[in-house]
Request: fold
Amino acid sequence: MPRRSPAGEESPGPGRPATSYDVARLAGVSQSAVSRCFNPGASISARTRAKILRAANALGYRPNAIARGLITRRSNMVAVVITNLTNMVYPEVLFHLNQRLVERRIHLLLFTLGHERNVAEILEEVWQYRVDGVVAAAHFSTGQIEACRARRLPIVFYNRSSDSPYVASVCCDHERGERELVDRLVRSGHRHFVLLSGPAESEVSRLRTRGAIDAIERTAGLSYELLEGDYTYSCGRARADQIAAMKRRPDAVICANDNLAMGCMDGLRHAHGLAIPRDLSVTGFDGVTAAEWGSYDLTTVRQPAERMVEAAVDMLLERIENPDLPAEARVFAGALRIGSSARFDGPARRL
Amino acid sequence: MPRRSPAGEESPGPGRPATSYDVARLAGVSQSAVSRCFNPGASISARTRAKILRAANALGYRPNAIARGLITRRSNMVAVVITNLTNMVYPEVLFHLNQRLVERRIHLLLFTLGHERNVAEILEEVWQYRVDGVVAAAHFSTGQIEACRARRLPIVFYNRSSDSPYVASVCCDHERGERELVDRLVRSGHRHFVLLSGPAESEVSRLRTRGAIDAIERTAGLSYELLEGDYTYSCGRARADQIAAMKRRPDAVICANDNLAMGCMDGLRHAHGLAIPRDLSVTGFDGVTAAEWGSYDLTTVRQPAERMVEAAVDMLLERIENPDLPAEARVFAGALRIGSSARFDGPARRL
Reply:
């Protein structure tokens, strides 16, 4: 069937999209005028521009963003590297990220890390697509960071910090958030704690745990026990059995994220008949959607995800303009969410 | 600072990535041989290929996927158009989709639909990037489908069906799944139902509700009441107040998705002291992760999301090869998940 442009005219030929040559011919201008018309910032008279837009519209012509990228040396694409976990915990991070990028007319090329693929392979592909920059919620080695630097490819890490002098990062202040949360529990009379951590290799979990220990060790006579976890609901559920069997039952279980806390609450309540917070308090970290649901009403530290995403996009775009900007870390305070999962005295206050 | 290739040699110049010309010079071959070497399917001798790969490696040369796309007329990118809701309910759909595409060396360009942006604007951008195809979990008008067809741009709809003769779609059998679920409730002695629907404009909700009504109307003496909802937890929570205040309390609340069901359960239990399923049964649809959590243990119909994603990718790639393939709808049965949220007699069976 013959192609028709939206306006209804016959298009240049069946199956062939209109080219800038077709537009130039119909508008009676040069091909370079057509190219200037569709390149933001290029100089062109209002009259020529109007003629070209009329012709482009009649032919259903769309400037080819990719070909344009070869001229401007920008692809107007940003790679986002996330892990399965990032997306499960924060589906809205990816959504906000895309919305903020699209507002700047930049598109998001998605790279997901499963168990079977590693960052090295993904980087080869990132380079092939000549993206303008990378937002990474994943661990990059120093060598990988250097290799991006050598290509003058800016990276912003999301919720990871890095010692590299080359990278920008956006983080929630995990350590301070957890310290202030646990400090409130101490002041509310909790004396013996279980700390349920994330996986050993998680820097974020290490920071949260350190914040909790700081708060506990400030006051004499308090004690804690550390259990290793893996950030999942099912791990929290399994650790509940261990906690219920402990000789000395803790007053509070401090979980390194909300998923662990919700699994732990379900186990303590439904498998062991314990009442929360009467028998013991349970807290999380992150402020995921389900933490507010009636079955959990979790006391947790909410990360300001929307604000963090905005900062990440700002930092990346600045560095696409100028790759020589110095490294910068932007750290955002979390907000205490007081739910009924922990026994707390006194009113809520922002951390 | 001078760029260094991974192998440590000086690169062609500071800040300048190696080009195919540099590789050709070092390997002592023509530029067209270099181009053939990196184009899958192009003919080249094993000896020449080895020479080129050695030179490319020494120079840190990466073939430019975008420039290659201009030759092959393929961008090797697929646009995925999703709404906020799709991603919240199924973060794993996007993850699986990307994994399946990457296996075929195709990349995912993400387009999200917020309230403020509509499909028309997004389509302009999709066309600009000359993607090879589109996976859409969003509503397209007939005109928009025609416009893609005119550009020979294949689309596969995910969990949407379409009357257009031009499109392929992958769906869960919503109507049948809900009919078989409610049929089981009827056979287990439930007599009076509340159907809590999704938003009025949702085709998926309409199908699920129709399946439920079918099952109820098959048996004489049963009755139901229809309440409109919007697929969110908070709506389910609010409808629980209405349901608890009803003169005749239903035996079962059939919710159009899991989020509604979980909100409804929390409201019925925590605000109205009702026991589930002793006082009434509650069911959902989708099989989201949280449906299996101990606080809910929801009876629901699980969509085979991984299988559906695989089918969507297969159908799209076939149509990228041959845009003239006829329309096709692939419909997958859901799997009944029996939890403790509904009073059920007899063993589980696959729908």
Remarks:
- The radius of gyration of chain B is 27 Å.
- Chain B has three domains: 20-71, 74-173+305-333, 174-303.
- Residues 1-14 of chain B have pLDDT under 50 and may be disordered.
